[in-house]
Each structure stands twice: as C-alpha cells, then as structure tokens.
Write a structure and sequence with these properties.
Layout: H1 11-20, E1 22-24, E2 29-35, E3 47-52, H2 59-78, E4 84-90, H3 99-115
Parallel strand pairs: 3-4
Antiparallel strand pairs: 1-2, 2-4
Helix pairs in contact: 2-3
C-alpha cells in the first residue's frame, strides 16, 4: 500500500482532481489526473486515490479491486512517477477482470496522461 504521502486522503482533493483533472477513460476504470508541485526546484511526490462504488460489487469484491489498484500504484511509485495527483474510478466491469487486465488498463492511462 502506498505510504501516506502518496495517497489522496481529503475529500476536497478528490473533488479537485475529478472536477478539474485530465480524464482518461477505459473499459475497467476512469483515470483523472492533476499536476502538482511543491516548490521551484523540487518535484512533488505522486499521490493516488481510488473510488470503488457499490456498483462494482459487494464489499469483498470492492476491497479486492482496491487492493489490486493499490498494488499497481506502488509499481508506479517505484517506477518514478512524480508531480501528479491521480484518482482511479473503478467501473463495474473491473469486478470480472484479472489483475493483469487492471494493471494494463492503469498503465495505459498513466502513459497517456504523462504524454499530454
């Protein structure tokens, strides 16, 4: 699980990212991203948030999807993604997707966001 400084935790931060961020849609999740910086010479750490609604499934399924997404977010942190707040909104189809499918979808979204 990402460390606290790598997590979007406040409701107002979630709203800011979802309302004003760049949006990348997919079959399994929708990704929103907003650039962020700490100072002139310092890159801010990336922060990740997850929205898993009841439409995805019961609590067990929602927590499974959240754990899978957090694991992929850890990979992004290890790969050096910085300077962005990202929120991933899981769609109901993600409940039947494998871990590799979720990973590919999230990686595609991050590549697209970083290229913009």
């Amino acid at each position: 699980m990402p460390a606290r400084h790598h997590r979007v935790t406040r409701g107002e931060d979630y709203r800011r990212v979802v309302r004003t961020g760049n949006r990348v849609g997919g079959a399994l999740c929708i990704t929103y991203a907003v650039p962020r910086s700490v100072g002139d010479d310092e890159e801010a750490p990336a922060r990740f948030g997850f929205i898993i609604s009841k439409a995805v499934g019961n609590a067990v399924m929602r927590n499974l999807i959240r754990r899978r997404m957090k694991s992929v977010a850890d990979e992004f942190i290890r790969d050096g993604v910085t300077g962005v707040d990202m929120v991933f909104r899981a769609l109901p189809k993600s409940a039947s997707a494998s871990f590799d499918e979720i990973r590919r979808e999230m990686q595609r979204a991050v590549r697209k966001i970083r290229s913009e």
